[in-house]
Amino acid sequence: MNFNHNHLLKTLVDTAPSGICILNSDGFIAELANEKFLQIAGRREEDLIGKSYWETFSEVREQYEDILCHVVSNNKAYHADQVPMILMRNGKQELIYVTFVYAPMVDLDGKVHKVAIWVQENTKEVMEREKDTAFNNAMKIDRDRLHDYFLQAPVGISVMTGENLLIEFVNPNYQAMLPGRSLVGRPFFESLPEIVDTDIAQALTDVFKTGLPVSFRDRLVAISKEEDGPTIDRYFDFSYVPRFDSNAQVDGVFNFAFEVTAFVHSRRKARQESNNMAQILDMLPASVVVIRGFDLVVEMINDSNLAYWKKTREEVIGKPFLEILPDLADQPFASQLRQVMETGEVIDVKESPVIFTNADGSIRETYVDYTYQPLSDLDGNRNGVLVMSFEITDRVHARKLLEQYANELTATNELLAQSESRFKFLIQEAPVAIGVLQGKTLIVETANDKILEVWGKTREIVGLPLASALPELDGQPFLEILDDVFATKEPFYANEIPALLEHGGKLKQLFFNVVYQPIFDQHDNVSDIVIVAVDVTEQVNSRKSLEISEQHFRKLSDLVPVKISNALPNGEVTFFNQGWLDFSGLSFEDLRDFGYFQMIHPDEIENFQQGLLQASKTGVPFISEMRFKNKDGQYIWHINVASPVLDAQGELIMWVGSTTDIQSIKEEEQRKNDFIGMVSHELKTPLTSLNGYLQILQLKLKQDDGLAFAEYALERSLKQVRLMTSLTNGFLNVSRLESGKMHIEKSTFDLRGLFKETSDEYRILFPNNKITAKLSDEEIPVYADRQKIAQVFNNLIGNAVKYSRAASDIWVTLEQIGTKARVMVSDQGIGIKQEDLSRLFERYYRVGNTTVSGFGIGLYLSMEIIERHGGKIWAESELGKGSKFFFELDIYQN
Ligand code: ADP
């Protein structure tokens, strides 16, 4: 390249309208740059020319070095349009936008020997535009991010657009829930015709209309997996969430869905199983207990078994068998249990005696039929035993008794006459009811005193058929059962069987444990039946009355306005009354599982636990104020009394909790405290200035110019005294009102006249505010307490001034509406939130965070005054726009 070329180039470069820099192609040394380029680059010529371009612009090297190399090797220009770039301009880091070109320049041989960089700065335009589009961009970024999220989300997501809910997008998870179905590009209801005409369809359409999301949990949707496949019951958690366009109109709906069919099934099954299990166990007439491990720990037990052991559930669950029943240690059960676990064999024993020692040291001899069955854990290891037993003590006793008599009978066979009477004597003396019925007609052949007593009959019935001896048995099952014993030759046993028997002319319900034992003749036919009966009426009744009294207790506890709970010493809750269920919004089971402690405010748990510990030691109830969370998630203050109930030995047997809502008392207390704080503050202010004026006055009076100031100070002082008088009057009125001593002295006067009179005072009191009055043309007579109504005016106008900007306008209108006089005081002040409006008239109520001083009694007094006149007072307001206060009184009609 000769000089001319270079010169030409330089002229071109210098006069070009854009920034230009020329680099040589090896090493990218800057050879030439025009003023414009330097300006955009923010560099001095001497820092650029003759130097490596990338050393100069090291801050963008990483971004553009490769590109530039590419331009050289491929001989192809590179354009960048309005790209952002962070450059060090004049030593300062700046974000700029540039449009630039790397243009290769070839020599005569066609080789790229230089690169021209053309550059224009667009920072300003971009920024302007950016401002407008920043929002859109942010949206776009959000959308992109959303899109990624949608694709990867672990739930099914679909996006539906437009009123016909065209499916615009589904993520892989969504598609997987409906494999083979074509979704995207089709209207939702066309893809899922099963949904049409269901309430789900309605809910979806409503989302579009209302813009409110809906969600469903564990919702049954009968839907096939593939299109046209068979419909099956599937369960989903899903929601429809509206999507809004820039005009806040719903333009689409997101559907988030998660299939929970498997969970629902397994949950249901588990619930069913455990429920079934517990129900079956308790329904069984047998005693059942599950024992685990070599220590023979009781894992599960039913009611019947507990009754047999005479233990409570908490005395046994989780405890070793021999610890629960140490007196069984020298009986064979423990070793049999271990044997079953070791060998896996089943042990089946009939009529085994089991001997317990009662608490008073006496012996309780019982008989049981029992089986021990081995149980395995999930891994198949034998580690438990299912024990099932039937107590047959009564049966065995009855049989033994019978056997005894039968033996007696045989032994004395030879001495028949004697033995007969002896047998009868034995029967007669027996402590249980015994009778012998003879033949199919059931003639009462023998009846001891005891049986006559329970039958309520005299010896006269001996010799009669049972049906005529006890005519009340007609319609009861006994005669039939006895016939059956004849026919089947099988004895009959029953416990706690109810019978209606006539005692002294009255039918009485009694309960018996009975045995009907057939007696055979030499042909092996039934000749007689021996009845052995034990009257258990008292036990049954006392158990029943216990059940009834428990029921009564529960009813009662549901009716009291207190929350009551009952818990075992280990904290397991056995009862929550209706008050708790209503408060928590949960069922008993859910509340028990969710846990009492979950409802307690976290700050109070520790103190509560310590209190319980203390109470369980001392037996003194623990009383505390604490917060419990209600169904809306709000913590409500309660006074909670946790009373430990101890047995005679001082052992804790249960907890009774009674919990009373004291939220409103707390709030009232708080307001009162605030009030007292405020009163002290408010009264101090005028007192302080009074004090100040009086001190200065004293000082000044000693000086010459005292008198001029005295007038001023006295005026001020009087003003403060007046203020304080009106403050104390306010309190006085409240206390009068509360003690029922507020006096209303009525007279007939003109409301308009009263207003006119008082308005002069307002002009002096509030010289800065323009008070415009629109009064009715005529007089408005009312029969009321003039002074008190004036006080209401004062309060309303005083508030209108207080809660407005200085010097704002206030309007007062006084008009006649039918038979009422209506006064309105309206201002352009700070206004009142809707939720505060109804509470303004409460005593001590002040809208939160107002900086204006006051006590919150003005409106309360005003309301009381107006209501005592049979009138009405209310407010309307819009926050920030001003308030209107109204009151109405009857017009006086003469
Ligand atoms: P006080 O003004 O002494 O607080 P009031 O009983 O007169 O007591 O008023 C109760 C509350 O009602 C005030 O604290 C204030 O928050 C609100 N209030 C009363 N009048 C107005 C009004 N004109 N504009 C806005 N808020 C008002």
From TrEMBL:
PROSITE patterns named in the record: HIS_KIN, PAC, PAS
Keyword GTP-binding recorded: no
The UniProt record lists the EC number as 2.7.13.3
Q: Where is the PAC domain?
A: 350-404, 622-674
In the bilayer, the protein is annotated as:
Multi-pass membrane protein
Q: Does the keyword Transmembrane apply?
A: yes
Return the InterPro entries for the record. Answer: BphY/WalK/GraS-like, HATPase_C_sf, HATPase_dom, His_kinase_dom, HisK_dim/P_dom, HisK_dim/P_sf, PAC, PAS
Main location group: membrane
The catalytic activity, as recorded, is:
ATP + protein L-histidine = ADP + protein N-phospho-L-histidine
Top-level taxonomic group: Bacteria
Q: What range(s) does the Histidine kinase domain occupy?
A: 678-893
Which residue numbers delimit the PAS domain? Answer: 5-75, 549-619
Q: What protein name does the entry list?
A: histidine kinase
